[in-house]
Amino acid sequence: MQRNARPLELARWEYLFDGGSRERVIQYLASYQNEDGGFGNGLEPDFWLPDSSAIATWSACQQLIEVNATKDEKIVRNLVNYLLLSYNREAELWLTVTPEHNLYPHAPHWQYTKDVQSKWMYNPSVELAAYLIHWSNEESEANKLGWQVIEKALTYLQQAEDMGFHEINNYQKAANLLQDKMGDSKKVLAKIHQLAERAMNKLPDTWGKSYGATPLDLIHNKEDLLYHQYRNLVEENIVYLHKTITTEGVWNPSWDWGDDQLNFAVAKQQWIGIIAINNQQKLQIFQ
User: Which label site among 63, 92, 96, 145 has the fewest CB atoms less than 10 Å from its CB?
Assistant: First the structure.
């Protein structure tokens, strides 16, 4: 990690696995926060927009939850304020990609085009709404906005026939954070379970050959209903993770930036640290 990770990921690794300080994680994470409270500046390595964005702020939220950040901490208060100000009232969610993304180096999947929001839908808005609720007082403006987005996101969920695994992850995180507060929680979890099962790549020979969801991308602990259903595949996925470690002891991303290999070389190095943390967490949970 010391050779391959940014200071932020190194601080996260030390916090998660080596008894490191949560304050160091927050310190490095704060360096990506803008004056408006949102996050940018390449926090998500696949786009280098310096301005605040929903996706970079979503990434920051996940890392703040990881260190058990509370609503009273300055970094969280400013983030909540950003979410209130950046909510798009016409679309009734936070825009995933904006025209400004195209002005800076970025992976092809972050290219802004007209009507691109129909591709992303509630990725990451449903999860951002859950964080807004988690870090706000009941009856506050932030809390009410969070529930307003959750209500619309749940309507969309129940109507969906299939869904990309990243958006499924958003719903999984939101459901985990809100627990039984999330409407008819059994109905919600059943639908998420159904969509996750459909999105999962169940063919081990094809893992890593295209960008898609392996079992461990959708099954997050041994209490998950899908774990009991696909335990053998989870075990194969663990073996796969061990097999795909490079000689340097890390994992490479399974995607690239197409023709922009020069800038991808920088992003790839940054992703290596993030992927190492994600995979080590998976191995700790299931081994």
Answer: 92
